[in-house]
Description:
Helices cover about 35% and strands about 35% of the residues. By secondary structure, the chain is an alpha+beta fold. The chain has a single domain (about 5-125), classed as Small Protein B, Chain: A, CATH 2.40.280.10. The protein has a seven-stranded antiparallel β-sheet with strand order 1-8-9-2-7-5-4. The protein is globular.
Amino acid sequence: MMEIFNRKVAHHYLIGETFVAGMVLQGTEVKSIRNGKAQIADAFVTIDRSGNPILINAHIESYAFGHIQNHLPDRSRRLLLHRNEIRKLREAIEQKGQSVVPIKLYFDKSWAKLLLAICQGKKLHDKRESLREKTVLREAERFLKGRSQSR
């Protein structure tokens, strides 16, 4: 099963509430995603004038075996969510310091789904602290692994 992750999210943001959204895609986009030819690292979600959530800056490569009706790689894509979820996203976007960022793009049966999160940007010292914690955990695991192998 093909899953595309946004690895920058955990480093740059404090992750809050998450949502699962469907996506309005063209046929060649689905084929490109199934082949793993998509990037959501710089993507974010906004609400358009008509109140629909829109995914911006997601790059889905053109399908290699497509024809003249192939999709544009960097086009905006409409997301499918329930009305109360859209309301929560709109409130989060309107608040200063919060944004809605995709975490994972995957397939649920035959449907392309996008895992979104309401995120708050980390400060530089928060990033350093999370890196420090990760290093300490890694060293502790390495130490415990070395002890178990020496017995």
